[in-house]
Amino acid sequence: SQKIEQNSEALNIQEGKTATLTCNYTNYSPAYLQWYRQDPGRGPVFLLLIRENEKEKRKERLKVTFDTTLKQSLFHITASQPADSATYLCALEDYGQNFVFGPGTRLSVLP
Amino acid sequence: EAGVTQFPSHSVIEKGQTVTLRCDPISGHDNLYWYRRVMGKEIKFLLHFVKESKQDESGMPNNRFLAERTGGTYSTLKVQPAELEDSGVYFCASSHFLTGVHTEAFFGQGTRLTVV
User: Fold this and answer.
1) Which residues pair with B31 in a beta bridge?
2) pLDDT in tens, B55-69
3) Do the chains contact at B102 and A97, CB–CB below 8 Å?
């Protein structure tokens, strides 16, 4: 069956460290994958999109990798700050322009 | 530029009643999506409009749910009659439609529906 898993429900790290979040999927062949941030009471906010032919994408302190052989994407936040605390969702293309969300990882950056 | 707006932000209704949720996408966005998050679960796809046409409604739970997008602008999602398991947060998102190009989706703040 099709499944998207994100490494852990919650992740706590110390301020200044690099946070690494994992998104694994089975029985999907996405042409692209996206990462979103969601704060309590708000809708998801788009962060990064990476295509199947791209290995890595960067945006400021964010970095995403996409390994279609391992069926995995890694999302890194370097020099993390308490303001980075939120739930992070991966979403992969199902078909057409639809996408399917993972369960999310709640990141807490401790001062 | 206004973002995606949804209303109401909260709705509490009794089982068996009807509720209509509304979504106003970003102007010019042909793609419009409805998603739902039930307590403790992941965000699940409900359906996708391209302009006024339903591109994919495979995620709609059952025939108690009816979505419309007359004129290809705002969309409504009606639940009739509502059941307890329909409680959750309903998100709307919109994006540009560009053939062969994947674009980011902008989400509204969601409508929290509680059926009692």
Assistant:
1) B50, B95
2) 889 899 999 999 999
3) yes
